[in-house]
Amino acid sequence: MRYRTANLQVCKDMDLSVIIVNWNTEELLRGCLRSVYRTIEGLDFEVIVVDNASSDGSVAMLKVEFPQVRRIENYENRG
Q: In terms of pTM, does the model score above 0.70?
């Protein structure tokens, strides 16, 4: 497998994991993440974004605007 992970540590006492698959949808991803963080209350949760080799700045946006998001960065679009 060819991918890079960031911020991935095992969380044993998690109530909810939100997993988002992304490919070149920076603006949609930004809106989705804003909604998730604005809406979820009272739960221990994590957000994981699997990025399929986006070239639109999605990963850079994640690093700057949502550094708490766990990332899996694929080197190719794996679907």
A: yes
